[in-house]
Amino acid sequence: MKALVLGGTGGMGQGVARDLIKQDQITNVILGDINIDPERVQPKLKASGKVSLVKIDVNDHGGLVAAIKAADVVINCAGPFYKTAVAVARAAVEARVNYIDICDDYEAAGILFASEIDGAAKAAGITVLTGMGRTPAPTT
Predict the structure, then answer these.
(1) 17-50 burial by CB neighbour count: b if 16+ within 10 A, else e?
(2) 6-45 pLDDT, tens per residue?
(3) What are the two backbone dihedrals, phi and then psi, of residue 57, each rounded to the nearest 5 degrees?
(4) Which of 18, 24, 33, 43 could form a disulfide with 9 if both were Cys (CB 3.0 to 4.6 A apart)?
(5) How distant is the alpha carbon of residue 55 from its chain centre?
């Protein structure tokens, strides 16, 4: 299974990618980001044969849909979510690829729930999960 992590070179995206590379069923983890400087990628991810970098601008709808179509699941870690969650979810639905985000923005989540995205996802036979992140995070 191929997983596309948007915001993949950011801290949260790389955290998700570290978890994904541990999964046997995940064969490829694509770090999609507008900044694909390999120096930003953590050593553990660089060392994994599963990880690749792809330049993706979440504001380029056509390019985003094409990139998502190359994956089996897309995980949106590209914030701020009030700007990205709806656009990326729409692109995932258009691409007919399951969508997960770590959205911690209640306004973006509200828009997702109140929009046509849920119905379109059901019609496309895919799942859209929002709010799979957590804020504030626990402290130690």
Answers:
(1) beebbeeeebebbbbbbeebeeebbeeebeebeb
(2) 999 999 999 999 999 999 999 999 999 999 999 999 999 9
(3) -105, 115
(4) 33
(5) 13
